[in-house]
Give the backbone structure.
Amino acid sequence: MSKVEIFHNIAPNGAGFFGFNSVLIEGGGKRDAATDDERHPLVKVYEYQTEGPERPSYADDLRICEGAFAMFNNGSGQEDGRYFGRRLRSLSTGDVVVVDGQAYSCESAGWKERDRAELAIVDDYPFPDAAPRDGAHRIITVPWVEVPFDNRGRRQTFAFRTLMAAVPEAFDQPPGNALPISAAFVPALRLWYDGGQQVELVELARQWWAEHKDHGPVHLIGVGDVPGVPARELAVGDALMWNYGATYVVDEIRDVSPQYIQIIEHPSGKPVAQTPRRLKKDRLVARVARAGE
């Protein structure tokens, strides 16, 4: 298997269309970039694995590059649905394909082998807030997000890494807190994941964070960290979890002061055994199910 990475050339004024790392000369003509500042900025937008020999040759790499050009060009008849599902523009002259660490620039005819030092890779390219449409596709550059691992060594979901990239402040907190927050987010995005349409997910992630930025993990004895919501957001019928996994259902909510509420709850399966509980409105509570769920 070979790892293939796709980089968009985002040089100003479309300079990449005149050739990778080409500098236009006033009055006509062009020359190669001579300094780091003149090199064309590149943004990684896609990554995939493809079948290949254990020790691929130069010719094997070129075949992979040609395959990438066909898959990532609108109108080729061999378009890759996941690539265009991310609303990326077509692979073009000046862009770069990296095969197992070896870079090749897309030329007006064919490919040119490049040294890694020639690549000016942008690591902090922002997600677009909006993007114009060009027919069925959006002609934009959307940065690829590396798939992180959670604290159990498992690959995170597409929704999780989208949230992490779109609203990094959600994860600017002590280690271990990010996973419970993301756990509350993933179900909301599961139905929105369609062929890797990451741009739409980014906006959804931002909306989610605006509504949930005051949420966080709750540590329950005998259970561990679980997603929490402020007590002021509770509703009659919500199911709550307390220490040691005990679950209760909210029967009534009383507003007792500007800072506090009182809830009347009963243990799950025992509706007659009601008990009151006084909660500060901004206290995080483990809600395991909303009313009606």
User: Anything to note?
Assistant: Confidence is low (pLDDT under 50) at residues 129-138, 147-158, 171-197. The radius of gyration is 26 Å.
